[in-house]
Amino acid sequence: MSFRASHLLGIEHLQAPEITTLLDLADQYAEHNRIGRPHRDVLEGLTQINMFFENSTRTQASFEIAGKRLGADVMNMAMQASSIKKGETLIDTALTLNAMRPDLLVVRHPNSGAVDLLAQKVNCAVLNAGDGRHEHPTQALLDALTIRRAKGRLHRLSIAICGDVAHSRVARSNIMLLGKMENRVRLVGPPTLLPSGVEEFGVEVFHDMREGLRDVDVVMMLRLQKERMDGGFIPSEREYFHRYGLDSEKLSHAKDDAIVMHPGPMNRGVEIDGQIADDINRSVIQEQVEMGVAVRMAAMDLLARNLRAARGAKAAGVMA
Amino acid sequence: MKTLLENARLIDPETGTETRGALMIDGGVIGDAADAPDQTIDCHGQCLAPGIVDIGVKVSEPGERHKESFASAGRAAVAGGITTIVTRPDTDPAIDTPETLEFVERRASIDAAVNVLPMAALTKARAGREMTEIGFLMDAGAVAFTDCDRVITDTKVFSRALTYARSCGALVVGHVQEPGLSSGGAVTSGKFATLRGLSGVSPMAERMGLDRDVALLEMTGAAYHVDQITTARALPALERAKANGLDITAGVGIHHLTLNEMDVADYRTFFKLKPPLRAEEDRLAVVEAVASGLIDIICSMHTPQDEESKRLPYEEAASGAVALETLLPAALRLVHNGYLDMPTLFRALSLNPAKRLGLSGGRLTPGAPADLVLFDPDASHRLDRFALKSKSKNTPFDGTILQGRVTATYVGGVNMTEALDA
After folding, report:
1. High-pLDDT (> 90) share of chain B, %
2. Angle (deg, nearest 10), helices A285-319 and A137-151
C-alpha cells in the first residue's frame, strides 16, 4: 500500500500512486455500501470529531455516515455557535480539543490555511473538509472516483471546469488532482471569476462556454458562490445563466457521452438547467454524493492505519 | 577625549569609496585622524561605516508596550548598528498632538540607547479627515508627517495637508497604494495567491497610488518621501517624477529586497507584510533601483507583533516584521551576492536618510556626529528569533544563516554596545 500521509490536508501533497490507492479502496467501500455490508471494526474504538467553522449539511453528513459505517464514535461540533464567538483563538480551540485525545479530526474553516495551522498543533489525523478558497481534497477525490467509474479510466480525459473558479476550493483541488493523473483540464468562465495566474497551472482557459465545452469528456459545473461575492463580478444572474449556465444546447458541444457533474448544492437556473441536472443519462450528480461517503471511508481508513502504526511505533519506543 | 579607531575598512558613502585607514572620535563628533589620540582601538580590518538612520520604525509606545518599548527598541537598534530611529506615529493612540509627541520624546530620552526622532501623524487619528497641528508638532520636534500605511483617500484633504506642510517646510511620508484595488488583499495576486487560495492585491495598486500622489505633488510642490516602493511597475513613474524636478524620494523595506512571495510557503504569517511580498522579478527590479539610486533609502519597516496576533489563519494574522537587528545582516546579502557595493549600501542606509531629514549624520566627515557602526561583514550565524533584543520575535529570518555581525555601535562617540553590556 502506498499511502504514507498522516493528514489529508490537500491534494497538493499527494502523489499519483497515493491517489490511486485511495480510490481503489473507496471503490471497494462503494460496492460494500451498495450491498449494505458495514465495516464497524475499521475505526472501532476511535473518536472522530467533525469541527465545522462554516455551515455545511452534506459534507458534514457524509463524513458522519462514513465514520459511523466504519465504527468510529462520531461527534459533531457546531463551531459557529461555540467558543469562537467567545473570542477563543483557533489555536486554543485546537489545543483544548487535542487534550480530549480525538483520533480523527474533520475540519472545515472559512480561512485558507486554517486547517494546516490546526494540524500543526494536534496529535491526531486531520482531514480537511474545505478551507477558505484553498482546498477541498475529499471533494476532488470523490469527483475522481465518479469519473473513473463512469469513464473506466482517470487519465487522458478532457475535462471542463466551469463557472466561479476564483472562489472555489473544489476547483483548486480538482485542477491539481486531474493534472497529477494526466488529464487535460479546461477552465471556462467569465474572466472576473477566474483567478489570476491560473494559466501557469497547466490548464487551458476559455471565456466562451461553447468553445470551452467542445469535445470534452466531462463537464464539471461549479456553484456560483453568491455568499462569497464582494459584488460586481457578474452583471446579473440571468446574464450569467444565458452565457455560462449549462443547458442542453451548450452541452451539445461536448462529446455525446460526456457526463455532467456538480459538487452541490445546485442553483438551478443559475449555473445549471434543472432538466440537465436530473437527466439520468448525463448527470452523475447523485453518484457523486454516493461516492463521497465511500471516499471519506477510504480516507479515514488509510489515515487511521497510519495513525495506529505511528502510535504503535511510539509505544514500542517507550517500551524499549 | 580623542579615540582613534585604526586599522579599519572605512566605508564612506559620500565619496563612494572604501579605504583602509583610521577614524578619530573627538568627543561626540568625528575629528581629525591626524591628531594625537588619547586612546587607540584596533578594528582588525573590520568595516567602519556611518551609523544607520532608519526611517519608519514602530515603537509600540504609547499603547502596546508589551510589543516594543523604547528600551527594547534601543537595545535592538544598537545590536543592529542603527544609530538613529525615526519612529512611526501609528501607535495607539496615534501621535497626532504635541502633547502625545512630548510624551514619546520623554520616554525616548529616558530609555532609548540611540537617537530617536519622532514622526507625527499627518491627519488627526490618522483618519484622513483633518490635518494635525503641523506647526506645533514641528516645534515639538516632529521630523516628518505620515499616516503610515493608511492612505488618505480624500484627495482634497490630502492636497490641503500637502500644501500646508509645504508652507511649514515639513516632509510628508506617504504609503502609495490604491486602496480600492488593494482592499482585502493578503498576498500579491498571481499564481502563488491562487495556489494558496488567498485574496490577492494587484501590484498595479502601488503604481496607481504613486501616480496619484505624484499628481498631487505637481499641484502642491510639497516635499514627499514614499515609504516603500516594492514593484517594478512603479519605478518608471518614480523616475519621471524625479526627472520632472519634484521634491520626491523613495524607500524600500529590507524584506522586499531579500524575500519574495514564495517565501510565505505554507501560510507562514511572519512573512505577512504590508505591502505583501512580491514576485522575484519585482524584487530584482527594486534591488537594481537601489543600486542605481532611483530608490534612495533602505529601511527596516520594523513592526513588532506579539505571538497571538501572528498565530492565526493567514488572512486574519497581523502584518509586519521586526527588523532592527536583521536589517544590516540581511542587507549585506545584497553586497555578498554582488548587487551592491558597500558605499552604495550605506548611501541607502545612512547618508540618504540623514540628508532627507536634514541631519548632519550619515557621513564620515570631520564635524559630523560620531554615530558609527563597526561590523564584520563575513561573520555568519544562524538566527534564533528568541535571541533577539526586541520584545517581539516576529522575524521571517528565524533559523536562516545571516552573514555579517555588528561589533560595536557608537552613538555620539560612545560605544553603546559596550555600555549596554556593562
Report:
1. 97
2. 120
